[in-house]
């Protein structure tokens, strides 16, 4: 996760998720930012918090970044997911606008 190639809001989101810090995680997102979890969309901080409490940070997620690349405004990270929910390899695409995450798409 220490890759300097990651945009600052992506670094903040990953660091906060790994640290169990929901407020820090939300702060990385634009006010109208969204999470797309395999087609289910959660828009805005309240909706993202509810999703995360049940399926992400609330499950003590850990994200070990194994690769990352950026195309335009979107940075994709390959991770090894741990915790008490889904575990295994997964990819997350972060679209960044104005130094905040506009969309985090979980791609598997």
Task: Report what the structure shows.
This protein is α+β, with helices and mostly antiparallel strands. The chain has one domain (8-106): Nuclear Transport Factor 2, Chain: A, CATH 3.10.450. The protein is 27% helix and 45% strand. The protein contains three helices and six strands, in the order ααββαββββ. The chain has helices at residues 8-19, 22-27, 45-55, and strands at residues 29-37, 40-43, 62-71, 74-82, 88-97, 100-106. A six-stranded mixed sheet has the order 2-1-6-5-4-3. Strand 4 (74-82) and strand 5 form a beta hairpin. The radius of gyration is 12 Å and the shape is globular.
What is the ordering of alpha helices and beta strands?
HHEEHEEEE
Q: What sort of overall outline do the alpha carbons produce when their principal axes are compared? A: globular
CATH class: Alpha Beta
Seen as an oligomer or otherwise, the chain set is single chain
Structural class by secondary-structure content: alpha+beta
CATH topology tier name = Nuclear Transport Factor 2, Chain: A
SSE diagram, text form:
Blueprint: H1 8-19, H2 22-27, E1 29-37, E2 40-43, H3 45-55, E3 62-71, E4 74-82, E5 88-97, E6 100-106
Parallel strand pairs: 1-6
Antiparallel strand pairs: 1-2, 3-4, 4-5, 5-6
Structure described in brief:
This protein is an alpha+beta fold and 108 residues long. The protein has one domain (8-106): Nuclear Transport Factor 2, Chain: A (Roll), CATH 3.10.450.
């Amino acid at each position: 996760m220490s890759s300097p190639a990651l945009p600052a809001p992506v670094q903040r989101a990953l660091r906060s998720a790994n640290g169990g810090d929901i407020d820090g995680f939300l702060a990385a997102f634009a006010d109208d930012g969204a999470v797309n979890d395999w087609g289910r969309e959660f828009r805005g901080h309240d909706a993202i918090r509810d999703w995360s409490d049940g399926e992400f940070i609330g499950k003590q997620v850990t994200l070990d970044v194994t690769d990352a690349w950026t195309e335009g405004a979107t940075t994709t990270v390959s991770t090894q997911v741990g915790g008490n929910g889904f575990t295994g390899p997964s990819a997350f695409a972060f679209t960044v606008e104005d130094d905040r995450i506009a969309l985090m798409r979980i791609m598997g």
